[in-house]
Amino acid sequence: MEGRIQRIKSQLHEASYKLTPQREATVRVLLENEKDHLSAEDVYLRVKEKAPEIGLATVYRTLELLNELRVVDKINFGDGVARYDLRKEGAKHFHHHLVCLECGSVEEIQEDLLDDVEKVVEQKWHFLVKDHRLTFQGICTSCQNKLKKAE
Fold it and tell me: What's the whole-number mean pLDDT along residues 105-113?
C-alpha cells in the first residue's frame, strides 16, 4: 500500500498538487476498500474514522481531483449514486463491470473486451479512443439459482 501511495503522491506532484493529510486519508480508504465501489458519502464516513476533522466537501474535492488525474474512475451503475473505483496501476482502460439487477452485486472484469471495437471505431469514424466503459446489467449466478428454486 505504501508504494501505491507514493506513486499517487508523485502523480499529484506532477500535476502541481500535494498529497495533504486529508487527501492521503482519502486515498488510504480507497485502497483499503478497493473492491467495494464506494460512494463519496461512504468514503467520507470511513475517512472520518481516521481523520475526524475532515469535512465532506474536502472528500468530494479530493475524489474529483483523483478522478481528473485518472487515479480513480467515477462510475454510476444506474442507481443515481456516483461511486469511485481505483484505476488499476498501468491499466490502459477502465475495467468492465457486471451489475446484478436483482441483488445489486457488482463484479469486475479486468480483461479488456473492446480492443477490436476500438480499432473499428478509430478506422471507420476516425475517432481517437482514449478510454471506454462497459457495464453489463443482468442477473448474477446466485440470483439465477434462487429464481430457479422459486419456480
Answer: 84
Question: Between the CA atoms of 150, 80, 135 and 5, what dihedral angle is there, to the nearest 10 degrees?
Answer: -120
Give the gyration radius of the chain's Cα atoms: 18
**Which CATH number describes the domain made up of 1-90?**
1.10.10.10
The stretch 55-72 carries a mean pLDDT of 94
Q: Is 140 marked as a binding-site residue?
A: yes
Residues 104-123: what's their mean pLDDT?
A: 87
CATH topology of domain 91-151: Dna Ligase; domain 1 (3.30.1490)
Confirm or deny that 13 is annotated as ligand binding. Answer: no
Q: pTM of the entire structure?
A: 0.74
Q: Name which residue leads in pLDDT, 110 or 37.
A: 37
The pLDDT score that the predictor gives to residue 120 is 93
| Residue 64 half-sphere exposure toward CB, CA atoms < 13 A | 6
In degrees, to the nearest 5, what angle opens at C-alpha 91 toward C-alphas 139 and 60? 75
Within 13 Å, how many C-alpha atoms sit on residue 103's CB side? 13
Percentages helix, strand, coil for the chain, rounded to the nearest 5?
45, 15, 35
Q: Is 37 annotated as a binding residue?
A: no
